[in-house]
Design a protein that fits this description.
heterodimer, A: alpha+beta, 4-stranded antiparallel beta sheet, about 40% helix, B: about 130 residues
Chain lengths: ~160, ~130
């Protein structure tokens, strides 16, 4: 339950809500280099890191993946596409070390969110905040690229 | 010689701290980079570069550690730095990257603008 409570998606949930949630989770072990989820694949599960490390990447070309993030802290998660239509993973996730993860099935979580609207509202609010932060980060990245282009045209 | 430290904490998806220590080795200014490089590292690289320029520098070595993580935003920050050094006719090299990032730096073309070495010693001997 400690891992779940440290996941940003579940911040603000009560102890009883976390208990309900933990009843829907299962633990898996994945070896280094193994692919956890593939970009473009149907998103059925949410993964929460318990031990190890998972790298998030996006496919640019065949044989070239751009690094997006490294999850190293317990409670960090990937697979949030399983919470939003069209339920398709938009990143590759690969274990950078032998890892243990908690898995929450999309359907089980959706059922829990429908049964407990407060839980559903908290999870979606946390997700929206996270996506907003990611949007700001991506905009900042674009700005850096355009700054580089602009400065090179000025010299 | 220790010159300055830039330290900061990022937000959003990667919340790692970054520290950039500036050191001098002969005519080479070493950016000793500890931590992950993301878009949030931009002001720290800019400040470090400005401070190092005040001291006057013609050769720069970016020293990374094996466990360093550099995401797409961090790559954008490094490309920006490389463009500045090119504009100012400074020589820049990179050392200490893991094979994973050496491969990525080759793919995004960074290695065309900065020579990549396995170790700091190799870089210093060659620069």
């Amino acid at each position: 339950m400690h891992i779940l409570s440290s996941c940003y998606l579940f911040k603000g949930l009560s102890k009883s809500q976390l208990l309900c949630l933990s009843a829907t989770t299962k633990e898996i072990q994945i070896q280094k280099s193994e692919l956890l989820m593939k970009e473009g694949q149907q998103a059925e599960e949410l993964f929460i890191l318990k031990e190890g490390a998972v790298e998030l990447l996006t496919q640019v070309e065949d044989g070239f993946e751009l690094p997006i993030a490294m999850l190293r802290n317990p409670g960090e998660c990937t697979g949030t596409s399983s919470l939003v239509a069209p339920y398709v993973y938009n990143l590759n996730s690969r274990c950078a070390a032998d890892s243990k993860l908690l898995v929450i099935n999309k359907t089980a979580l959706k059922k829990l969110m429908l049964e407990d609207h407060e839980l559903g509202c908290i999870v979606m609010k946390n997700l929206a905040q996270h996506l907003l932060d990611r949007l700001k980060e991506t905009r900042q990245e674009l700005k850096i690229h355009f700054k580089t282009i602009f400065r090179s045209t000025q010299s | 010689m220790f010159i300055c430290v830039q330290k900061g904490k990022g937000r959003a998806i990667m919340k790692q701290e970054i520290e950039i220590h500036l050191k001098r080795h002969g005519d080479i200014t070493i950016f000793d980079i500890q931590g992950d490089v993301t878009v949030f590292s931009e002001p720290f690289f800019n400040n470090a570069y400005t401070n190092a320029n005040v001291e006057g520098m013609s050769k720069i070595l970016l020293k990374f550690y094996e466990n360093a993580y550099i995401n797409s935003g961090g790559i954008a920050v490094l490309i920006q730095l490389l463009a500045e050094t090119k504009k100012n006719q400074q020589q820049i090299s990179i050392a200490g990257l893991s094979p994973h990032f050496q491969k990525i730096f080759n793919m995004v073309g960074i290695s065309k603008f900065a020579k990549i070495y396995n170790t700091v010693e190799e870089a210093i001997n060659d620069m």
